[in-house]
Amino acid sequence: MSHGLDRLLGQARIISVGDCESIQEILERHNKSMWVHFSPFLVSYSLPPRRSLYLLEVEGSLVLIQVNVRNGETRTDLLFLPVPYTDKINSWLTTLPEIVGQEDVRIIWVDEEEISQLRLGFDENLAWDEKGVEYIYEPEKVWSMEGSEFRDMRKRVRKAEKNFPDFMDLSVEDISECQELLKKWRSVQGRKNSFLLDWGYTRAALNDFHRFAAENLYGWCVKIQGNVEAFALAGPMNEDTANFFVAKTNPEVSGLSEYLRWKVLGELRAFSYVNDAGDLGIPGLRQHKMKMRPTQLKKTFTATLLTEVQKGSCKLRLV
User: Fold this and answer.
1) Is-above-0.85 flag for pTM?
2) CA angle 12, 33, 58 (to 5 degrees)
3) Is there a contact between 223 and 168 (Cβ–Cβ < 8 Å)?
4) pLDDT tens for residues 186-234?
5) Domains (ranges, CATH) in the chain?
């Protein structure tokens, strides 16, 4: 770890459940609504010592620093653009690669508007790649499942209903069964998609479920014949938008994945929109999420702040 990074982290602290409300308030005040802008995810994503998320205030802005340690090497990046993004924080960002002793620093989640802001501040010292799209739903529309466009969705839900599923609020007593289901899900899906990484933060969120305030993180499970076969976590990002954080089902129960999402979106009808994250580039997941007819596909990017050394070797991607 460089001396600069060591000094920087000395001013920061690792994120914790107790930070949820203050972080969400800042993100809401500044109209941040990418899927990453959900404080229970941020807390669960921090998995020290291999991946730690540090909370820091710089020039009046919220900064989340991700420190990855792998094979003895340390890599430092920002999870998202500091909030708010100001001229003062822009000046600090220009020095960040040097501070942490790297040739570049990534900002892992950035939207189109933020790319435009960064281009003004960094010009040729900025590169970016499209990360994917986030699926934005109108929960009332999905819940009603009206019209021919929802025909396949209705069929899948009705198929699952033949198993007489019991949809209910998640309780602490259900967590151990949810963890066992997560292991089963990983053993099946992990063989198909070895890069899937969400099991780590899902496991952490389940472990800490009892520590989150009920108004910050909602939970449900589906039981069939008394056994937990699916579970989901979600919560508010702001008054209009909820975050669909986690959805895991027993892949052996046909239609259960559609049934779970339909029921959870029904529970979130107090919100105008629900951000259901991306599809990881997996065709089957993309097909599944398109069944619910998203209102918007929100583009996201990963930006890279370059030093003069790196600038000449990186191809810039233009929006």
Assistant:
1) yes
2) 25
3) yes
4) 888 766 665 556 889 999 999 999 999 999 999 999 999 999 999 999 9
5) 3-134+299-311 (3.40.630.30), 139-294 (3.40.630.30)
